[in-house]
Amino acid sequence: MPGSAEGAPGHRTDSLDVGRGICAVLVLLFHGLLVFRIGGVDDPHLLPVDLSDPWLLLQHLLLGLANGPAYVTFFFVLSGTVLALSLDRDPPIHASSVLGYLVRRGFRLYPLLIVTAGIAALLQLHYFELRDWPQATSWFNNSYKIDQAELPAEFLANVQGRSATLNGPAWSIKVEILASAVFPLLYLLSLTMRRAVLAALVLCAAMFLLPGSAERWHYMNVFLFSFFLGALLPRWGWPVAAALLRLGRVPRIALLIFLAMVFLFSRRLLGPDEFAPPTVVLLETLCAAVAVVLLLHGGDRAFFHAAPMRLLARLSFGIYLLHMIVLSVLAHAVLPWLPAELGPMAALGWGLLLALVTFCITLPAAWVLHVLVERPMQQLGRVIAARLARRQSPLRRIA
């Protein structure tokens, strides 16, 4: 999910970062809607659409609008675009530039991951109760159930990015870490049309044809195409934006509404019980790419420069990694005081209220971590990368 468009010209910086911030808030809402059983339905995000059950249908509509997994796919496309913009400024043509890129990326991803894993581990030790709540879904009840004897090993795996048992949303950071490691190669493949088309076809085929489960490949077989498509957009996306803008107002709006519906609801209809179904991820990636193209190459809007939106953009990574911890703390505080059986309206109301309060607490908490951890570590990463760049690499001397 994380990336930074810092340094990109004009409205690109604001529009891309604001888009990421809005998606982080929608992921928060998605998780808030999964805490309580509404109408007695358990884990509605894993169930197929049932037109005979009005409460399940309502949940699917809400979970579609706040489609957390789809917005994570959007993050991956956006990361590919942002990283490509960064490498446009400092191409990976010699060893020191590649090493500098990896250092900056490491200082972007790891510090907040380590801090949030530490917070979650302390809460696991001293706050969360190892019990199941009758009002809550299995998705929520299965969280924070690590045996204390296993906690040190789990903490180490979490801070390395190998596991997300302490903080569910951190699973995507593992994908970001692995994709970042190979991204310089993806970037070089994106520079010519012939290589880009061939690489896109190979990555797309890998989504469907590699043997074994996606877990075996650490989900890279499914999501690496999303990063690569994002990498293509700065250089090759403008014709798509121009074609969309040449359409008449009504056809353009109709097309964008159709793409939005595919992006929001294809998972609910085609693969609700799978974590990363390739067909759904492919559809989400293509729709997300159109949105990123319009953010990157479309017209500037005052909305992207508004102070609240710029703040949301700066704090998006912190909101994403912190919100599940805050949500769980609040839910564990509220659940003992609620009736064992909640009516559908009460359960829905509590879920929405919990999401709202979680946002109100997560935003200032993310600001504190941005000031104390995220920004200083990014600056340190840039300083180290700059020093590496001043050292002439062996590859450059040979050239």
List the defining traits of the structure above:
single chain; 399 residues; mainly alpha; disordered C terminus
Number of helices: 16
Rg (CA only)? 21 Å
Count of DSSP strands: 0
The overall average pLDDT, rounded, is: 90
Describe it:
The protein is mainly alpha-helical. 71% of the residues lie in helices and 0% in strands. It has 16 helices and no strands. The chain has helices at residues 11-32, 54-65, 68-89, 95-126, 138-141, 151-160, 171-189, 193-209, 220-236, 238-246, 249-270, 278-297, 307-314, 316-334, 344-390, 394-398. The protein is globular and about 60 Å long. Residues 4-11 and 393-399 have low confidence and may be disordered.
Question: What's the arrangement of secondary structure elements?
Answer:
Elements: H1 11-32, H2 54-65, H3 68-89, H4 95-126, H5 138-141, H6 151-160, H7 171-189, H8 193-209, H9 220-236, H10 238-246, H11 249-270, H12 278-297, H13 307-314, H14 316-334, H15 344-390, H16 394-398
Short description:
With 399 residues, this protein is mainly alpha-helical. Helices cover 71% and strands 0% of the residues. The longest helix is centred in the last third of the chain and has 47 residues, at 344-390.
